[in-house]
């Protein structure tokens, strides 16, 4: 039986597209997602300006998060996000991980689902930073294995879903953001 899934999606971009700068491109991504009849956007954060990661790797990013509901399974939702990226000029084959790009739509969470399973999610969450830059998973991993390490994901997500609790870490978005900021 198919059920409605609550999704969290991170949006980012730091290069212009045919539509203009990163903020215009992200607004277009939200508009495209809103146009789909099988997706209901439930909240959108403010747009945040953040430094590129790793430092010096490109222009500043514009980042935001949104929450949405859909009956699409997580793999289909990820495919839909990739379609929107392509429509807005993102070519995934053009660069490696963490490269400058006009738009990036990352599936952060699908309710309290852990995909593909707890051990794989934990292994990717524990991956050393150097390996994170070189390796990409073959299957969808949820929650996003590095969300708890990324202020540019947690700060906007805390605006719209501060109480969402990571099913393995056991911390809310607001708590993970506080933990991260206390480390620095």
TrEMBL record:
Annotated GO biological process: folic acid biosynthetic process; tetrahydrofolate biosynthetic process
Pfam families, per the entry: HPPK
Pathway(s): Cofactor biosynthesis; tetrahydrofolate biosynthesis; 2-amino-4-hydroxy-6-hydroxymethyl-7,8-dihydropteridine diphosphate from 7,8-dihydroneopterin triphosphate: step 4/4
EC number: 2.7.6.3
Domain of life, per lineage: Bacteria
Residues of the 7,8-dihydro-6-hydroxymethylpterin-pyrophosphokinase domain: 9-162
GO molecular function: 2-amino-4-hydroxy-6-hydroxymethyldihydropteridine diphosphokinase activity; ATP binding; kinase activity
Keywords assigned: ATP-binding, Folate biosynthesis, Kinase, Nucleotide-binding, Transferase
Family: Belongs to the HPPK family.
PANTHER family for this protein: 2-AMINO-4-HYDROXY-6-HYDROXYMETHYLDIHYDROPTERIDINE PYROPHOSPHOKINASE
Role noted for this protein: Catalyzes the transfer of pyrophosphate from adenosine triphosphate (ATP) to 6-hydroxymethyl-7,8-dihydropterin, an enzymatic step in folate biosynthesis pathway.
The name this protein goes by in its record: 2-amino-4-hydroxy-6-hydroxymethyldihydropteridine pyrophosphokinase
Organism: Paracoccus zhejiangensis
């Amino acid at each position: 039986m198919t059920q409605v899934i609550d999704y969290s999606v991170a949006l980012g971009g730091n290069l212009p597209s045919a539509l203009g700068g990163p903020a215009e491109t992200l607004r277009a991504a939200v508009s495209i997602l809103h146009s789909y009849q099988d997706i209901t956007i439930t909240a959108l954060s403010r747009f945040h300006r953040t430094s590129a990661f790793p430092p010096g790797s490109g222009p500043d990013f514009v980042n935001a998060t949104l929450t949405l509901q859909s009956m699409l399974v997580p793999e289909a939702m990820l495919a839909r996000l990739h379609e929107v990226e392509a429509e807005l000029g993102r070519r995934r084959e053009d660069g490696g991980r963490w490269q400058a790009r006009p738009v990036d739509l990352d599936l952060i969470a699908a309710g309290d689902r852990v995909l593909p399973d707890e051990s794989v999610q934990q292994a990717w969450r524990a991956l050393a930073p150097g390996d994170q830059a070189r390796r990409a998973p073959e299957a969808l991993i949820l929650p996003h294995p590095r969300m708890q390490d990324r202020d540019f994901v947690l700060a906007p997500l805390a605006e719209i879903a501060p109480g969402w609790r990571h099913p393995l870490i056991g911390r809310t978005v607001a708590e993970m953001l506080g933990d991260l900021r206390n480390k620095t």
